[in-house]
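Predicting holo structure, 6-hydroxymethylpterin-diphosphate bound.
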Amino acid sequence: MRQNVRPGPGVAIGNARLAAFVPETPSRHRFAARVLEWGPPAEIARELESTDSDPEGVGIMVRKARIFPVRLEDVPLKAAPLLKQELLAVGGDAAHARGVADHSVESSPAVLLATWSQYRYLLPKLRRQPFGLKQVAEEVDRALRAYTGRGPVELVGAHRTLPLGPRPRVLGVVNITPDSFSDGGRFLDPSAAIAEAERLVADGADAVDLGAESTRPGASPVSPEAEWGRLEPVLSVLSGRLRVPISVDTRHAEVALRAVDAGADIVNDVEGLREEEMRRVVARSGAAAVVMHMRGTPTTMQLDTTYADVRRDVYRALAEAVDRADEAGVPSSKLVVDPGLGFGKTAEQSLELLAHVGELRSLGFPVAVGASRKSFLGWATGEAEPLARVDAGLAAAVYAAEHGVAIVRTHDVAPTVRALRLWERIEATRRTLPTSQEARSAAEPEL
Ligand code: HH2
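Done. Tokens:
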């Protein structure tokens, strides 16, 4: 009969054993092979340390423990094979178009596959190469640092500051409108809007977002005068009463200017600071700004939802928008990016953007996301009524948290805060530091 062996009691040294192997009955799980799930470097370092590995070795191995795939667009024909070659030389790899081999393409997208440790060898080599590879190295370096870093710890508004992390901050929505898609007319009366904002803060909102023009698909535009007429009586009271930052959801520079003067901290522009005047107002007023992605206007945005690649197109558009804001003098520490779920996107496209929302962190700005009650959630769950989509909104908020989103915009503050509290407790277990000093320093690896 075949005999199996298992470590006997032996002598334990930490988690390892100096074992006398004793024969016993066959087991398919003698070694208890288990695929590990890990996320932050602290968690990786702790797992490695738990094998009683040499602490110095833990530091080396943490950098080998995860592949960071990095996508590049339009890599020149001459650069693509060099890039692959350099990646292969460090033990990584790179995908690019087949047409690179027979020169049938002028440029190619590329996906780089390398560990932290391999990028450390790769990037200095790329910096010495021609054909644009120096800039490739700089962009890859910047994206990796932005993606893996802890990000900014606060968003300084014109008057108040929103602390960021470790859990997403909850931005509670108050629509002072007759026609918003989920709560139109409920808070048009200023006293109802004020009471709602105070209720949201009591429920745990970290900031409130006041909107006086609906931006739902096909909504009729509101003049800046009419918008300000709705906003002013609410903002003037709340700015004296609320301790949390106030964001104003507007596409009009003159409304943004008056709002910041009247006490607003953040300009939430669904047009992504597209207008020069809006960029100027944000730069001069000291307000923070949410740069959201939308093609066209709320009236026109659903007319054409064709994207060559929705993730790539939204990423590029946001990158251009923050570059323009930078040129206009808006400090980068004041910016937040938002993929604009439901804004000129089909339900499938909004889900795809949500699925990959963490990629936006590579831009180097805190990421905001608004899924609450939106029709794409209804499409996914079969719920026609916005109020029946609250649960799906909570799932979206927790998903966003798991992918490093910094701000969650929601109408349903109380349940979102409760759901995120659980997520925060789970996350805290992953951030527990390893015990040895060497392994601890590995938990914050430098590229
Ligand atoms: N969504 C809406 C409005 N403003 N701002 C940001 N940054 N991100 C969003 O996803 C977002 C937003 C749409 O929601 P709501 O304000 O409730 O509806 P309406 O535009 O009909 O007032």
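Confidence is low (pLDDT under 50) at residues 1-7.
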